[in-house]
Amino acid sequence: MKTCAPSSMVETLRWREGRLELIDQRVLPARVEFVACATADETARAIRDMVVRGAPAIGCAAAYGIALEAARLKNATPGEFSAGLGRAFDALAGSRPTAVNLFWALERMRDVIKASSAAARPADIAARLLDEAHRIAAADVAANRAMGGHGAALLADGMRVLTHCNAGALATAGHGTALGVIRSAVAAGKRISVIAGETRPFLQGARLTAWELTRDGIPVTLIADSMSGHLMSRGEIDAVIVGADRVAANGDVANKIGTYMIAVLARRHRIPFYVAAPLSTIDPRIACGDAIPIEERGAAEVRGHAGLEWAPAGVAVRNPAFDVTPAELVTALITEMGVMREPDRGRIAALFKPVNRDS
Amino acid sequence: MKTCAPSSMVETLRWREGRLELIDQRVLPARVEFVACATADETARAIRDMVVRGAPAIGCAAAYGIALEAARLKNATPGEFSAGLGRAFDALAGSRPTAVNLFWALERMRDVIKASSAAARPADIAARLLDEAHRIAAADVAANRAMGGHGAALLADGMRVLTHCNAGALATAGHGTALGVIRSAVAAGKRISVIAGETRPFLQGARLTAWELTRDGIPVTLIADSMSGHLMSRGEIDAVIVGADRVAANGDVANKIGTYMIAVLARRHRIPFYVAAPLSTIDPRIACGDAIPIEERGAAEVRGHAGLEWAPAGVAVRNPAFDVTPAELVTALITEMGVMREPDRGRIAALFKPVNRDS
Fold first, then answer.
1. Is A225 in the active site?
2. What's the whole-number mean pLDDT along residues A66-73?
3. Residue B336 pLDDT grade (very low, low, confident, very high; cuts 50, 70, 90)
4. B76–chain A nearest CA distance, Å
5. Using CA atoms, how far apart are residues A240 and B357, in angstroms rounded to an integer?
6. Nearest-CA distance from A277 to chain B in Å?
7. Vertex B277 angle, CA B276 and B279, to 5°
8. Mean pLDDT in residue range A151-179
9. Nearest to A257 among B29, B222, B226 (CB)
């Protein structure tokens, strides 16, 4: 057995007996159940149906989806292997459009295949693909811990920090991005209390963030998404920290729907607005936020929750899953490289220079 | 049988066989049921439990609550009658704190008692109190129709109008305040489509506004409360119109939690933000919004809905039911007297001068 995260932590993804097991985020916190994926198609379906969600976790799951498919085809002919993997890449790339980590992880997996010699046997490539998936997951945890260390310096003892959606261990391979910063600040001895927006329609805040933080003993207060402006106006929020699904080259941030409204209110009330995102979430190929594809999900999520529908049957619905916060509203972007104040095109380009990632 | 609204309309309140019947707004739209109140205590409980909600409707219900109690005590001695009514006023005044229409209606009922001669029999006073309750309800519908006429001029053909909570027939004795303006614009031949925020936690938008508008054949699209900023940023909202629970003397508006966030976003995107409220919602005794009492409701509403709890058991919750939008963010206040652009202390004071209401 090989797990992707220390066993004391939330196991968002784990590798067991040749299968990818995902904690089922649709039924938390009522039930802690795992969904096992044995193929790329099953993994793509788990991503689409939000068994697993959160940009970094989606990236890790997609990498394992390729590894699963490669293992399944390891005794096929090279031609069958290549065709099967091609279909797997397509299925996973089509699962969700906004989080760029998905495409980033698939590209890393493609690079492994490209780097293999033409004579390599499918079984050898499959082994290398599984190693790469494990490396991606381990690197994600490491990036989150680094982000936590950098970002914790931004949070002072006693702060009341608003977060939105779930950018925690459940959104990553472990520790979390935004919640990772909070965890690291708490580990450093700071008393931080968290205000969690419930995050309709999927209720990641109410179900996942509240559950994660309660388990860790970090004080958390749940609010409806419409309440953060009121709390800001009454001086009850000291900082905002959120994750991201894709950061454009100019620093615009696509994140869970509702993030933009919080950012606008934070600016009005002079409250710092921080985004915690690893480099794998930054998409230097997208010039600005307007160009980021925004997923629209089905009507049922907005008409109710978990099978209970409270809206009139058949009422029209809009369900954009993400919005774009312009870079000018972001006080600082926290990555594994450090804290970037006032993110902009130049500062973000500089992040990628040392490794010459785009060449 | 005497009803408070034409039978073709939603019957938010109706007077039947000496009892007040309230459409149960906790179970709409799944079920259309009425709760009958025979006493002031039952009416106060219906207000507190949100069987009836919406500032004008609460005011009407409170007036009927006094009429019910007076009818119940009409054969009592004058001393018992007076003491019983005193308890009824206290019970109703303690039911909900923010909507000022409640206190306004109770004051009108008190004025009827004060205007009765010392020798008046309880039965005569009870009859006059019921007449006054009917007058308050009829005047509310008339005010809404007047507001509708004035406000409709602000909405152009083809506009996509965002509203929050339910400021419709269900929030009033009929026609509605914000939705009354939309109804009047549609009646005048304008094609208006409505975007309704679901309004967590009580879901007045998803359950009540969507139901009312669907019944009327007015196109309505339901969104989560966190989505309005995104739609504004994409140019998909042309105007905002909401009701109010209390307007302070300077024009600050207490309304359903989330209104303030919408107003801030509307200003950022240069979208007009209209408030429709009858004079009975304006409280000239409260200098500014900061002094308006904001009700905090119980945790269960935020932890889930209608008995389904999705948050971790026992998680801490904040549940302010209202917020305050500063007057500077209000493009116009629509009352039965007309459209007041840029409401401020002077313009609001002028509204009350002709009738010398404060003397």
1. no
2. 98
3. very high
4. 46
5. 46
6. 21
7. 145
8. 98
9. B226
**B312 vs A contacts (CB less than 8 Å):** 29, 207, 210-211, 214
Catalytic residue among B140, B225, B238, B245: B245
Task: Estimate the share of chain B in helix, then strand, then coil, as percent rounded to the nearest 5.
Answer: 45, 20, 40
DSSP per-residue letters across B69-121: HHHHTTTS-HHHHHHHHHHHHHHHHTT-SS-THHHHHHHHHHHHHHHS-TT--
B199 CB neighbours in chain A (<8 A) are 226
Residue among A214, A312, A319 whose CB faces B312 most closely: A214
pLDDT digits 0-9 by tens, B69-78:
999 999 999 9
C-beta atoms of A311 and B29 within 8 A: yes
Catalytic choice (A238, A245, A283, A323): A245
Q: Which secondary-structure segment (H or E) carries B270?
A: none
The answer to whether residue A43 scores a pLDDT higher than 60 is: yes
Angle at A75 between CA A71 and CA A78, to 5 degrees: 95
- Whether the per-residue pLDDT at B356 is higher than 80: the answer is no
**Cis amide prior to A219 (ω within 30 degrees):** no
- By the 8 A CB rule, do A160 and A347 touch? no
User: How far is Cα A67 from Cα A72, in angstroms, rounded to an integer?
Assistant: 9
Burial A23-45 (b: 16+ CB within 10 A, else e): bbbbebbbeeebbebebbbbbbb
Structure tokens at B267: 């200003």
Which chain B residues touch A312 with a CB distance below 8 Å?
29, 207, 210-211, 214
- Cβ within 8 Å, pair B264-A268: yes
Amino acid at B139: A
Lowest-confidence region among A147-161, B34-48, B87-101, B345-359: B345-359
Q: What SS3 state is found at A149?
A: helix
pLDDT bracket for residue A4 (50, 70, 90): very low
A224:B311 CB<8 A = no
Verify whether the Cβ–Cβ distance B260 to A229 is below 8 Å: yes
Q: Which residue has the tokens 């989150």?
A: A144
Measure in Å the smallest separation between the Cα of A61 and chain B Cα atoms: 25
CA–CA dist B187, A167 (Å, integer): 47
User: Which residues in A lie closer than 8 A to residue B221 (C-beta atoms)?
Assistant: 315-318
Q: Please give the average per-residue pLDDT across A14-36, as a whole number.
A: 97
Residue of A nearest to B321 (CA): A227
3-state secondary structure of B274: strand
Provide mean pLDDT across the span B107-118.
Answer: 95
pTM of the predicted model as reported, rounded to 2 decimal places: 0.95
Task: Say which of B199, B229, B302 has its CB closest to residue A323.
Answer: B229
Whether B2 has a pLDDT exceeding 50, the answer reads: no
Whether residue A275 contacts residue A262, with contact meaning beta carbons closer than 8 Å, is answered with: no
Query: pLDDT grade, residue B119 (50/70/90)?
Result: confident
- In the predicted model, is pLDDT for residue B6 greater than 60? no
For residue A354, what pLDDT is reported?
60
* Total residue count of chain B as it appears in this document: 359
| Cβ-contact A252, A282 below 8 angstroms | no
In chain B, whose CA is at the least distance from the CA of A225?
Answer: B226
